[in-house]
Every structure is written in structure tokens, then in C-alpha cells.
Amino acid sequence: TLAFIDIFVEENKQEEDQQGETVWLFQEEGKSEPSMVADNGDEPDDDNNKLTLHVPETSHQISTDSWFQAGFVLTTGINSVFVLGYSGTIMVPLGWVGGVVGLLLATAISLYANMLVAKLHEFDGKRHIRYRELAGQIYGREAYYITWALQYVNLFMINIGYLILGGSALKAFYVLFNEEHTLKLPHFIAIEGVVCILFAISTPHLSSLRIWLGCSTVLSLIYIIVACVLATNDGLNAPPRDYTIHWTSTTSRIFSTIGASANLVFAFNTGMLPEIQATVRQPAVKNMLKALYFQFSVGVVPMYAVTFIGYWAYGSSTPTYLLNGASGPLWVKASANMSAFLQSVIALHIFASPAYEYLDTKFGITGSALELKNIAFRILARGSYLTISTLVSAMLPFLGDFESLTGALSTFPLTFILANHMFLVAKKNKLSSLQQSWHWLNVGFFALMSVAATVADEDEGVADIEITNSGLLRDVHALR
């Protein structure tokens, strides 16, 4: 709501960002007012003078982090608690050939698309610290707000996923010690939400995650190593597994495959690369490319390991939360589940940081993070945001459907369609006809995939709801 109110209340005035760079406003074509002047003194192309827009400075810290820290932020996202679900949500519907090839292709195309966005960070000589600003600079006013809406929907849905998985991990920890199961998943999602609120209040911005990124890495290694070891032990001691892909019809086969492809792109992409790149010190493009190389080389190894080992161990019966199917010592499983729960809190903060940055900047929150008024604001603003997210999370029981829906509605458009088309428009005078055709092919292909994945997810969601409703009816009859 605040985002759309901001459209009408902001005035067109000149601002300076934290680095002292001048931010001139876009002006309508044909107007006599000055157009945006790039930091290097060059005038932007006439095609870019499309927007009358005030771009506020940020209240958060920027341009201070090394590429290594940015790489750890990206790796934290890719090896978050979501990796414990990929064996069930990617490998089960695709099988060995489709799953392995799909993951390798998704890695390559995701790296390529993110590199395109990273190279546009200083388009027209100015650092674009928000995805929507980059889109607005290239396309104009409408794209600014459309990108804003798409990105925030994407990040909101990812945060919901972390709340669901964090709650699931905490519930798995609980049932190890309590056989009565008096508490249900929504209760644990609520606990996850409270812990996330406390963490958000104590961690003012993305750059302040420094020590927490190290903690996140340790926590990730704990649950990934435990999951791999327990699954390997189960696989070695189990009879031959069934790796058959089970479909009820040809239509089900098509929809399951398309839905799994949306899960593939969901696994590798953040939807907030410019915001992460904003924290990186100069040269921002070069350093961000280093961070991306780190993410898509060293960073993907743990994810590959747990995904493939989990599917090898349990086959087509692999659960959507891998630790639920693993057998082993109680304390080992408990430590893995608790690590997954705690890591989800840190990872959620990364994907919620653009919303926090908007709120802090909108209301002019500056000064020490320990000032009473700043603490009170974080309690109110971030607490409200996460409370709403937690309530929504408690009503979304189907994790696989959630992942594919996020990939279809936001990851495909933000990471692949928009990245290729922005690069095409921004570099149109420098691209050969073959290069332009390549980018247009990507735009068309991923647009079709986005539509197909959305339709497929709706079909799978309806099927899951029908199954759940039939189960509820059986429970009611049993009670009678």
C-alpha cells in the first residue's frame, strides 16, 4: 500500500545518493526541463527520457562489502533450507535424466541471466541500487512500477516459503521428542514468524549480516551433511528403489514436467540481484561477476549433493522435506532440523531486506540502529510485514506447488524475460543481428514457459486440494 501511495506523494526534485552522485530526474519527452545527466557527464539516449520520477536515496548501507561477502549472500540463498526439498520437488517428477540435465541447464542459464543484469548495474553511468530503478531507466515509468510489483510479489512468496520450511523443520524437531503431536504445523510457522521478527529488529540492513553469513554457512553444512549421510546410509541398506516417474495421464506428465522446470529456476535465482550488488564496493560490476562465479561454482556443490543423494536413496517415494524420510540417531536428526530452522531465519532476512529498505527510506530512518526511535520503527514496520507473511504461510500447505508458482509468476519474468529484454534494449546499438535474435529467442521461450508453468501449477494445485479435501472427509467420517 505504501508503495502505491508513494507514486502520488513524491515530488520531482533533485536528490544525492550516499556516494555524492547526482540523481537527476527523468523528464517527459518534449519538456524543457533538464533530462537525467549521467555521472560521467554523458547525456543518456533520448529513448530513456521517459520518466518523471523521484528516486530517493537509501537509508541502508551501500558500496562497502567485498565480492566475497556478496558471494556468501548468494550462496546462503541457494543452499538454504529449500535444498532439503529439491529431491522431492525436482527429481521425483523429472527422474534421473531429466533431473540431472535440468539442474545443469538451469545452472547455466541462471548464471547467464544474472550476468546480464549485473552488467547493467551502471547503465547510463549511474549505479542502480534497485531492480525497479534499472527497469525504469531503460523503459520508463510503467516498467518501474510493474517491475516493483513483480519483484515484491516474488520476494514475498519466497519469504512465505522460508516460513513454511522453517516451521516444518521445527515441527520435525518437535515430533522427535513428543509422540502426542499436539502442536500442528501452523503453530510452528507462528513460532518461526516470531523468531524472524526478533532477528529483523536486531539486524538493521543487509550489510550487517556479516557474522550471520558465517553462522548460516555452518548451519547449512550441518543439515546438508546430516541429510547426505543419513540418506546414504538408508540407500545402502534399503532394497532396490523405484525410480519410475508416476503419471496418471499424458496431461499430468506434461504439467508435472513443466511445474518441475519452474522449481528448477526457483532454486538458483534471488530476484533481487541489483539490491545485493548495491552493497558491493567498486568496481561494482567486476566484483559482482566474481560473486556470481562463486555462487554458481562452489556454491552449487552442496545443493547438487543433497538433491542427488536424496533421490538416489528414496527414489520416487522421496519426501518434499528430506529429513522426514531419513532414519538415524535421534540427536543427529534433531541437530539437523534445528539447524534448518535457524538457517531459514537468516535466509528470510536476505529476501525481506528490499522491503525493509523501502520502509526505512520512505520514513527517513537514519542514524544509529540502536536509537530508540529506530528500534521502535523496526518493531512496528518489520513486525507488521512478517506478521502478515506468517498468517499467509499458515494457509499454504503445498510446498511443491508454492515453489513452481513462484517460479512461474515471478522468477521467469524477472530473471529471464526482463534480463534478456533489458540487455537487448540497453545494448541495441552494440549487438549484432545474431545476438539480438538470441535475446529475442530467450524472451519468447521463457515467456511461453512462464505461461505454461502457471497453468501447470494451477492444475497441480487443484489436484492437491482435492486430495486434501478427500483426506479431511475420511477423517470426519472416522470421527463419526
TrEMBL record:
Superkingdom as given in the UniProt entry: Eukaryota
Residue segments, region Disordered: 29-48
PANTHER family (UniProt xref): OS05G0424000 PROTEIN-RELATED
One Gene Ontology cellular component annotation held by this UniProt entry: membrane
Transmembrane annotation, as ranges: 67-88, 94-117, 143-165, 185-204, 211-232, 252-271, 292-314, 334-359, 379-399, 405-426, 438-456
Protein name listed in UniProt: Amino acid transporter transmembrane domain-containing protein
Taxon lineage: Eukaryota, Viridiplantae, Streptophyta, Embryophyta, Tracheophyta
InterPro entries tied to this protein: AA_transpt_TM
Record keywords, A-Z: Amino-acid transport, Membrane, Transmembrane, Transmembrane helix, Transport
Subcellular location: Membrane
Domain Amino acid transporter transmembrane stretches: 64-454
GO biological process: amino acid transport
